[in-house]
Amino acid sequence: MASLDQYSLCPCGNGKKIKFCKCHEHLPEMQDIYRMISGEQNVAALDRINANLKTMPSEPWLLAMKCDLLLRLGELESLEETSAKFIRLQPDNPLAKLHRAMVAIVRGNTEEGASLLLQSIADSGETIHPMTAMVGMNLIEFIGQRGSILPALLHAETLLDLGQPMQQVGMSAYQSIVSDAQSSSLLRESIPSPVDPGDAPYAERLDEASSLIEAIRISGAKTKLESMIREFGPQPAILQALLHCQLILTDGESAAATCRKLTQCPDLPEHQKVYYQSLAFDLSPQSSGISLKDDLVVYTIEDPEFESKLATVKSLQPVPVDQLKEMLQMMLQEEVPPKVAYVCTDAVLQEQFAESEPLRVGTWIAFYGKQTDKPARLVALEANSGYQKKQIDSIKSDLGLNSVKRELIEQLHLPFVQRISSQVMIRQQIPDERRLALSDAIKHLNTEEALDIPLECLGNQSMREVAGKAEYRVALQAVLLSWQARNPSGFTDADFDAIHKRLQVSEPKLSPELDVFDLVGGAAYYWTDLANIDPQSLIQLMQSSLTRGIASMYQPLIDRAQSTQWPEELRGSAEYTLHNLKVRVCSDPNEAEKLLARIIESGKKLNVSIGSAIIERFELLSMLGRHGEARVFMENAVRENSSDPTLMRYIQSLMQQSEMAARGNSGLGGQSSAGNIADAGGANSSGIWTPDGPSGSSPDSAGGGSKLWVPD
Ligand SMILES: [Zn+2]
Which of 134, 339, 405, 422 has a CA 20 to 30 Å removed from the CA of 677? Predict the structure, then answer.
C-alpha cells in the first residue's frame, strides 16, 4: 500500500500535490488518518477527523476525507450534510462536486448528478480526480437501469475521452451498454453531429456553444443554445446541439421535445425527420404518443365457486405466483401475494401448436382469496386495444365478470413496441420441423396486431388506417423504424420491407458515399443502400453492427459481403470481420469452433486484439468435450498473447475461481464478468458501485482508483 507523502495529490481534491497545497502543514496528521483508513480502521479514522474538525471546522482536506469515509461506510445522511458544507466552503473544488454528484445520483436526481459530474471534469483540467470513475459508473448504471441508454452511452464516451485510468472504466461501461440487446439500436448509436449552419447569422454563437460542449461546460452551452432559440427560432443546427446537452444532462423529456421540434423543421431532409421522431418515441413514449394505456383493475368477487371457474377457462394459463409477486407488490403496495395467477394464452397458437404451450404474455389475472380485512378480489391488467383487448374481453365474458363492478386502480403506459415485440413465450422445446411454422405464426400474429392498434402519434388511428396518407408519412415511418430498431425476435429486414410495402411507404435509401451514421445515427443500419455500397463503407457498417450488437443486420451484411469483390488492401480485414459476423449467427458449435480458429488466425495478421475470440474458442472446445486440445490451445495462446488485457483478465478470474473452488466456495460469483456493470453494482449491498468493491471486478483500477488520494 502506497503511503501519503508530500508528492501525493492533496486529499482536499484541488488537484495540487500536497507540497504545493495550502494544506501542506497538516501532512503528519493526514498521514496518521490515511494509515488508519488503509488499515480498515474506518470508525477510528472518522473519530479522529471529527475531533480535528472541532478545532479546524473548515479545512477542506478534513471535509474531503470525511466525505470519503462516510461514502465507504454507506452513511448517506451524514454524507449529504458534510458534502453540502464542503461545497459551500469550496464551491470550485472538483472533489466537492463529485461528492455532491454522488449524493444526487443515489437520491435519484440524475440531472443534478450529471451536471455536477461534468462540471467537476471540466474544472479538473489535466488531473481528473480518481473518484470521477466511481461517480461516472454509478451514474451510468443508475440511468442505464432506467432505460436512459443514450445518455448512459454519452457518459461512457465522456469517460473514454479522459485517458487512463478513466478509459478502462469507460470502456467496460460502454461495452455493457451497447451489448444490451433489449434496447433500441437507435439508442445504442451516438446522435448525428449538428448540420453545418454555413453563414447563418447565428453561426458564430453556435461555434461558441460547440466550444463549450467540447470543454464539457454543458450547462453553460445549454443556456446559450436556449437563448439562441428564443432569438432565432427553432433552427435545426441549434436544436441538434441542444439535444446533445439535454441527453448528457439525462433530461429525457426535454430531449424528446427537442426531437419533436426537429421533426417539424421544414429544411431538414425527410430521413432525418423520421430519425428524430423515432428517437422521440424511444426517449419518451408517453409524451410522444406511442404508448398504450392498459387498465389495472380490480373486481370484488362474491361467487364462492370463482376460483374453480378460473381453472376451467381455456385461454388462461396458470403461472407460479412468485413470477408476478414482485410486480404486484409494487403496483398494489400490499404484502399479501395472490392465491393464484394466470396469463392469457393465445387461442390461435394454442390450437395449432398445443405441444409448445405458446403464451401471449402482457395481459394477466391474479386472484386474491378472501382475507380477514378484505373480500375476495380479482386484479387484472386489461389491454385497451388490439388483439389483447379482444382476448381479455372474451375471458371476462367466460368468467361472467361483465356484471361485476369494475374499479380502475391505475392506467399503465406501455410503449407500443414493447407490447408487440415480446408477447410470445415458449415453455417447451419445439421440434425442429415445427419451429419455422411457429415463428411464422407468431410473426403473422404480431404484425396483424401491430397494424391494428390505434396510436396517438397517428391521430388515434392505426398504421393500417393511415397507410398512404401523406400527412402521416413521417410519423408512420418513424413508428416502423422504432419497431425495427427494437429488433423483435424473428423479424428480418425482408419482413420489414414487406410491412413497408403493405403500408405504402418506402424506407429512405441512403447513399453510402455520405457519412450515413453522421446523418441519421443508428437508423443507418436499416437505410443504407446495401445493393450499391462500396467495399470500404460495407466494412464500416459490418464492424459497427458488431460492436453495437445489431443482430438483425448480421445476415444481410454477411450475404452482401460474400458477394463483394474485395480489393487486395481490404481483403484481410474483410475476412476477419465476415467471420466475426458468421460466428454470431452460427448455431452449430463445431462450425463456430472452426470460424473462431480462422478469426484468431486473421486477427493475428491484422494485429488486432484476439483475446475474446481465444476465450470463446477455449470455452467451445471445453464444451465439446475436447479438453486436452482446449488446454494446449489456451497454454499456447497465453504464451503468445501475454499482453492482451481481455485474455489476462480471463485467466485471472479462472484462477480466482479455482482458488475459490479449492476453498469449497465455488458457488460465489463464479460467473461475474468484468464488463458487466450490474455485476459490479450487485457486489456492494448499498447498490453503490465502488472501484474497490469486494467483487474485484476490475483489477486494473486497483492502483489508481481504489483508494482515494493514491497517485498512480
Ligand atoms: Zn489541499
Answer: 422
